[in-house]
Amino acid sequence: MLAAVPETYATAWTCLFRNLEIVPGQLLVIRGGTSSFGQAAIGLAVNAGARVIATTRDPERFGMLTALGAQRAEREEPHLSVRIAEAKRVDAVLDLVGNSTILDSLAMLRRGGRACLAGWLGGLDPIADFNPLLQMASGVYLTFFGSFVFGTPGFPLSDVPLQEIAEQVAAGRLKAEPSRVFGFEEVREAHRVMEANQAKGKMVVVNA
Ligand SMILES: NC(=O)c1ccc[n+]([C@@H]2O[C@H](COP(=O)([O-])OP(=O)(O)OC[C@H]3O[C@@H](n4cnc5c(N)ncnc54)[C@H](OP(=O)(O)O)[C@@H]3O)[C@@H](O)[C@H]2O)c1
């Protein structure tokens, strides 16, 4: 189970507490909440006292998000900022859907709010004809984080409280149990499940 922790939890922790500077009571929207990364971020943010709204494209998964501690789930869609009741009052957005939604994420923030772009579930196409003057909300912060910087001088892994995270996992305060564990000979099936959008969390392949 420990193997499933660092990539998602170290990345989610850094996005939340370094890039977004989340503090208790803040309203945070996590787009792509049912992903393994999103689930880790929901747990960390809720434990830190944030109020979390998490998104999925599938309303049947709303219960999964609220069971993780999200205050509410919303259906993921490109123009969520137009529909969400808290538009212009959101303190922070962790956007894992990516380039196709990040401008919409900026549009739901309050002045001084922050968005962190850290996932590309919606694809890697660049933001088309990005023109900040015409498309970007005023007075908000856009940040990016990629885990490939862990271990470089500005981003020591010791910055992340991995021991504390592991203790919270052991105590049941954070959920890190893999959704499924496969033997190495089942790696094709693991890919099939992932590509069919049935993973519902982190899957582990064991080479024993
Ligand atoms: N920045 C970093 O350092 C870093 C580190 C790790 C991962 N990542 C990135 O973070 C993202 C999440 O990674 P993961 O491994 O946690 O993913 P994952 O568990 O494989 O994510 C699966 C989820 O993706 C959602 N999804 C699939 N296609 C989508 C689409 N077109 N639009 C919106 N949602 C879609 C599905 O949600 P629903 O069906 O419920 O909507 C599904 O539950 C990936 O883009 C990954 O590359 C970044």
Automatic annotation (TrEMBL):
Transmembrane segments: none annotated. InterPro entries: NAD(P)-bd_dom_sf. The keyword Magnesium does not apply. One of its GO terms (molecular function) is NADPH binding. It holds the Pfam family ADH_zinc_N_2. It comes from the Bacteria. Keywords: NADP, Oxidoreductase. This is Zinc-binding dehydrogenase. It comes from Nonomuraea jiangxiensis.
